[in-house]
Amino acid sequence: MFIKLEKKEGGNSLEFLLSPLSTIIFYDMSKEQVLRKEKEMMDQAFERMLKDYMASPHGKKEDIIRKAYQFAYQAHNGIRRKSGEPYIMHPIAVAHIVCKDIGLGSTSICAALLHDVVEDTDYTVEDISNLFGEKVAQIVSGLTKLSGGVFGEQASAQAENFRKLIVTMSKDIRVVLIKIADRLHNMRTLESQPVNKQYKIAGETEYIYAPLAHRLGLFTIKTELEDLSFKYNYPEKYEFIASRLASEREKRMDQYDRFSLPIMNRLLSMGFEFVMKERIKSAYSIWNKMQTKHVPFEEVFDILGARIVFKPHPGADERQECWRIYNLITQIYTPHPSRTRDWVTIPKSNGYEALHVTVMGPDGMWIEVQIRSVRMDDIAEKGLAAHWNYKKDYSSSESKIEEWLGTINDLLKHPDSDAMHFLDTFKLTLYDTEIFVFTPKGDMKTLPAGATALDFAFDIHTDIGSHCIGAKVNNKLVPLNYELQSGDQIEILTAKQQTPQPEWIHYVTTVRAKRELSNLSKQANKAFREKGEAILDEIFASLGMHQSVQGGIVGTVLNTILLHFSYKTLDELLIALGKNEVTSAQMYALAESNGRIIKDHEVYQKLTQANPNATNTAPINSKLCTCSCCNALPGDEVIGFKNPDGTVSVHLRNCPEALRLKSQQGPKIVAVQLTPDPLVNYNTFIEVKGIDRKRMLLDIIEVISNEFDNNINELKVSAIGGIFRAIINVAVNDAEEARNICEKLQLIDGIEMVNRVNQEWENY
Predict the structure, then answer these.
(1) Active site residues
(2) CATH code (residue 425)
């Protein structure tokens, strides 16, 4: 919702845009009348929220909620959001999401109404505690952002704020639930923000908040967060998919009616009380599938699905009822042999329970049906809050949530000094897909998909992991990096003389294993780090640079050196220096030569001071550097990030590294555009797949080298089982030229797919 006050030409009217769909015009209104109308609108929004609260199981503490609303209204009185609406509309909207969509009670609703009071006004956490109690104050404190300017140039306040949120979450999970509601409303009103803010907030939402909502079981909110992130990150692609979904809706509804009618009739004949409804794949999910499968919109065949939510018969076991409905459906339609998902017997780690079956519909299309009880559906929609409502009867699902929270608490007991590293590590806990494996004694363990034998060893105990020499999976000897599958039984082999090796960090995927290996590595490298730090201090002192290495010009020089050696952190550089992997002579020469860099840094500072929009546009003297992780070309949709030395790193908008940087270093985003240069060629990687035949490779080379006169820098080919595959490193001038080459290659006889990919063969 947004409001726009506008003086009409040639009159005294004021226009209120109350929503994107409705416009109300008040003619010849005074300021007092306008404010009175606004107050009516605020009160109506609050009463709608309160009505939903009173209808909920929690609806017993109306007075304290009204008190919180009146307090928040007075605190934010006269303040407006960038959209033009009175600020109080935001906390009311957040409170409504907290109440209706998440299902929390009065304490959380009060905290939602008050969540910006401490940050934006002169009131303190102590004031909140005195008026509304310690619990509300604690939640509000956790939701209040950290003050700016305390982290230094090299730290990310964005990441630090999130770490503080997680610390508070470990004490009261309601903090993060309200924060997700806050983020959802901010995303709904993101259009009022400048473009660079949209990129930052949308990137942060996609990277952390949507997966976090999913991990907490808030599937509806997760889906909306993903779609809104997609809308602002890729507006044209979003509009294309949204318009296709809208134009084909009538056709899909006809398909759904033909599919659902036989099932509904059978359920009614068996005496089931149920609701059956269509389920349309979200725009983000469709786009994600198009990217991962390299297929056009027309080849995404599972857009239409169905969901059955039933009320179990009196005295019946709801899990058995799910299987009864499953049998009923498979009697009508043929099931896909490998597409049944049983989360009834073993729920997901976020507590999700349902039975999914994919069947062949009457129109020759595969359609997935989700089967849930009313309780299961409530948990799927409201996540953790619903778990609390049902935990007396279903403790197994609750225990999975508590297990995850235990992982978070364990992570917080071993804090990392680098907030951005903490954010990346925390994200590893938000895995979507799980596997179930067994110890030699038959005890079941839950691990993320992609977990290895070494992950399993550390999951049992740190000592077992650190002394692991191998593993037996299903009685067969496997290496430490063997990827486990659901149902595997694993026996870990150990030796007392074994110690963790540097390459092990690349063998593990779980938070616990990575953290333990990192701690063990720090202990082993402590002496090398101290030696490297002493050498570095001596070098800087000899050059007259006596500032702390944590910031200022020295920090700028260090960042350049890190980039030069491809180290991500200062610790890595210091350890390498202590081990003599980087020599003192190399360090001295680089530090000394950075007089130029220091000068450039000073020029850059002057430019940014003179240009208040420097955060939105790359400075005129910035050097644009394309990154090897995505190999952006002129004409691609790109995004830039300012480096301390004045250069700008350029990434494709959909690059995973760009997504990570947006979530952690949003203020460093700059708008950039790569301009083609006829004298400059760029490397791009083109993947080609098809049915193998004679002269296939010659035909491909003919197109690239002869028709387009482009150089092939590298070519890797495989032809196994009659399937031809090639990754071609081609020198091109811009994205359009790469597209033209792909289109021409697609016309070659036997070629089924041609696609630009980001990296080389080894990454696929």
Answers:
(1) 119-120
(2) 3.10.20.30
